[in-house]
Design a protein that fits this description.
By secondary structure, this protein is α+β, with helices and mostly antiparallel strands. It has a domain of 131 residues: 60s Ribosomal Protein L30, Chain: A (2-Layer Sandwich). 37% of the residues lie in helices and 14% in strands. A five-stranded mixed beta sheet has the order 1-2-5-3-4. Helix 3 links the parallel strand 3 and strand 4.
Length: 214
Amino acid sequence: MALLQSGATAVTLLISTVIAMRTTILFLAAAASAFCQAGQIQQPKGTLQTPGGIQKPSGPWLKQGPIQVPKGIQAIRAQDSPCEHRLIVGADALFEFNKATLTEDARETLDALGSMVQKAGKNPIMIEGYTDSIGTEPYNQDLSERRAKMVRTWLIDQHYLDPAFARIWGYGKTRPAAPNTNPDGSDNPAGRQKNRRVEVVIDTCCQGGCSGCR
């Protein structure tokens, strides 16, 4: 009887051990599965976006605007040398490109110029015309003369200038004040603008048409 009880106890202990081991194995298996799932990299869902090209800015600020044209007294530059007081006026403030007729805005600049010319009194005055390099030499020569004549006529009509003391001269494109082209041979609009000009040259060394005056 004691032997039977001892055997039953052993069997019970064995069964308990097996059950405990099975429980431990199941627990370890579940933990390992959870660990593997946690370590997996999640793949994004949906359509992947592809990077686009670098966008280039666009808009009117990329376009080179027209060269600014000063008006009035700002369009006039004075230059002095022995026996000369030279008033240099950008032609773009007076004329349309390639023309010798005054623009509607020219009066503001010519009024400022006329006030300066009046101070010359009876000093001889030469009004000179200059052009840029576009066009033939004969054409630019004629254009420079017509522009100088137009300025002289306007100053006389507005009583800024005595016709007895004023003459005109055209130089065409022969005396540029700035390069018409860049060093690489390309066009130089800013330089050509400086070359399109009218210069009023006041002889400060003689008055009243004295001999030897221009």
